[in-house]
Amino acid sequence: MNKLPKWADLGLVPLINVALAFGISMLVILAIGGDPVEAIKVMVEGAVGSSYAWGYTLYFTTSFLFTGLSVTVAYHASQFNIGSEGQAQLGGLGVALVCLAVPWPHWALALPAAMIGAALFGLLWALIPAWLQAKRGSHIVITTIMFNYIASALLVYLLGGVLKPEGSSDPATARFGPGAHLPALNEVPGLGMLFANNTPVNISFFVAVLACVAVWFLLFRSRLGYEIRAYGKSESAAIYAGISPTKVIVIAMLISGGLAGMMAINNVMGESERLVLNSAEGAGFIGIAVALMGRNHPFGVFIAALLFGMLYQGGGELGLWTSIPIELRIVLQGLVILFTGALNGMSERAVIWVFAKLSAKQGAQA
Asked: Does residue 162 lie in a domain region?
């Protein structure tokens, strides 16, 4: 047996990878003198134990959904987009410019405009690396990493002077007007009782869920998605079938950049209500782990983003209420990336071996 059932490939193998990463993290806690049992209790309660915890978990989940989908779309075109972090920061610039340019009368008008601004700035930031890859053969990993640093430097310049309000000492834009305020989920009728009043989760969560469905339809139910996946599987076969590599690379990267940019409607428009430095807070890089763990499938990305939202929120509570440093969540994220990426084949081969043994045993009994 050389191939796993789809349910095992999409569910069982990632679950084993996470369990291995979690187990090693508990050994690290033990090694530094912490209590693994207490750590697990604090993390679980901090992530899902109250309406306050769920509010923050879903807030982080929303950001990770956008960046995870961004990496997923590029991956299917055989492009490893490491630039979601910079694209998300530029998406924040697009949101800020849209929200500050017009005195919006209502968020229902401001939100679609902000989504367009975020996606437009994000995809434009992905355009040059995409073109360089398609036309010049420049490696997409190198160019997108470089553009992360350029995006950070550009925002330092803009927020340190050009966009900073007169008399302000903060490297940030002015606050958006009341018409650009996105309702938090506790303000939505019927959901108010489920979330605490001081949590940042907002209606952009539903936009992220719709983005999952849209990406699934794009990749698996559209002609463009077929071309993207065909090129990602075999460049030579795709060219033989008449598929343009330049078209696939550029379009896939533009969609990827646009999705990363749209993360800003959650943190810039929904939570901060202004653009601040480092608004992405590493979510672009976490999106890589989310996509890997979700097996680059939109619905897998949803589950993985929810898990990473729990880890991020639970890890924050761990650093707040115990002597265990908050940086442990970075260790756990790194271990998840290690097992779901570099060492994925190890656990996959082990599961294939177990399935083969079970299949042989059933055949002998028959």
From this structure: yes
CA triplet 119, 121, 126: central angle to 5 degrees? 90
Torsion (CA) 212, 289, 309, 180 in degrees, nearest 10: -60
How large is the average pLDDT for residues 13-40?
86
Confidence of residue 322 (pLDDT cuts 50, 70, 90): confident
Residue in the block written with tokens 């598929």: 243
Candidates 83, 90, 73; CA nearest to 140 is 83
CA distance 48 to 310: 7
User: Which structural domain range is residue 263 located in?
Assistant: 58-294
For the chain, the straight-line distance linking the first and the last C-alpha, in angstroms and rounded, comes to 18
254 vs 120: CA distance, rounded Å: 9
CA distance 109 to 322: 44
Residue 42 lies in a domain: no
User: Domain tally for the chain?
Assistant: 1
Map residue 188 onto helix, strand or coil.
coil
| Rounded-to-integer distance, Cα 268 and Cα 317, Å | 23
The pTM is what? 0.92
Question: What sign for the dihedral angle of Cα 72, 77, 81, 85?
Answer: negative
The pLDDT of residue 259 is 98
Residue 330 resides in a domain:
no
Q: How far is CA 362 from CA 69, 358, 359, 366, in A?
A: 40, 6, 5, 6
pLDDT for res 2: 60
More confident residue, 36 or 96: 96
Q: For the residues 267-280, what does the mean pLDDT come to? A: 94
**Which residues are paired to 172 by β-bridges?**
276
Within 8 A by CB and 6+ apart from 113, the residues are 98, 102, 104
- pLDDT tens string 57-76: 999 999 999 999 999 999 99
Unique residue bearing structure tokens 């998300």: 88
Mean of the pLDDT values across residues 256-262?
98
Q: Is residue 32 part of a domain?
A: no
φ/ψ of residue 77, rounded to 5: -95, 15
